[in-house]
Write a structure and sequence with these properties.
This protein is of the alpha/beta class. It has two domains: about 100 residues, Alpha-Beta Complex (Quinone Oxidoreductase, Chain A, domain 1), CATH 3.90.180.10; about 150 residues, NAD(P)-binding Rossmann-like Domain (Rossmann fold). It has eleven helices and twelve strands. It has a five-stranded parallel sheet, with helices on both faces. The protein has a three-stranded antiparallel sheet with strand order 1-2-5, with helices on one face. Strands 3-4 form a two-stranded antiparallel ribbon. A hairpin with a 2-residue loop joins strand 3 and strand 4. Helix 3 packs across helix 4, helix 4 runs parallel beside helix 5 and helix 6 runs parallel beside helix 7. It starts with a strand and ends in a 6-residue tail after the last strand.
Amino acid sequence: AGIVEAVGPDVRGIVPGDHVVYSFVAVCGQCPSCAEGHSNLCDNGAQVMSGFMLDGTSRIHVKGQDALIMAGLGTFATHSVVHEWSVVKVLPDLPLDKLVLLGCGATTGWGSSVYAAEVKPGDNVAVIGVGGLGSAAVQGARLAGAERIFAIDPVEFKRESAQKFGATHTAPSVEEALELVMAETWGRGCNKVICTMGVGNGDMMASIMAMTSKRGRVVVTNIHPWTEPSNNIPMIDLTLRQPFEPLREPPRRLAEQLHDRRHEDHAHDRGIEQDGDRHAEPEYLNGRVLDGDEREEHGDHDECGSGDHACGVCHSEHD
């Protein structure tokens, strides 16, 4: 997130002085995916993963050579050049160090519940992995009216935090959660199961399926290793439970929720509005704010799953 200092001659809707939140998925609003309401799958925006600008050039150079920047953003620098499709304008009186979470993790987790899972009032929801993504998914499920929210994570601190965000039940493992879910739902299972565990494990899918109710939905937000060729899903469950709704929607729905920026301006407005009413709490996803060299040291905290969801902030000289 940051404040715009200059814009190109063809930029529309963004002017110097605007406060903006970066989105790691650029959204053109014009391609078939965007027109169908799936801007998180923007056809044009997918090009930012090449490291170049959307026109195929680079605005960043190191020793005369083009430099590739992550998602076309380069957010660890004090200044960056980004495409207008990669920013969302926000109100200037809102704190950027809180809103920065809406550019990726908070929106992804929240959208996993609200858009991908389509949680409805009265639903039973399980969220597997309640770090940054999962905590936002728990909040999304709560705001959508879920009756029971099962937060599953081996780290006690994260389970305790999830209860503050709205989880009604917690468990340290999928196996223990399965028993709890069946006891609390009279054997029906969860209408929605959301996987936000960071790196997924295909061997867990059988237990996840067993936790899912008939006509329920499984949303896989976490990534899986490229080397994982398959997962363990009992095929009979696809027939009896129909968790992926194969007659109405393709199984692709499972992989869709890497980042939900469909109607992102609207999604940010909803999240910010709810935050203003103290309903959604993105700032509590931050354990602390890192500055300068601390960002490099923080990698160890992420690897051990400490739940310390830190936010790196770069300050310009004139700040």
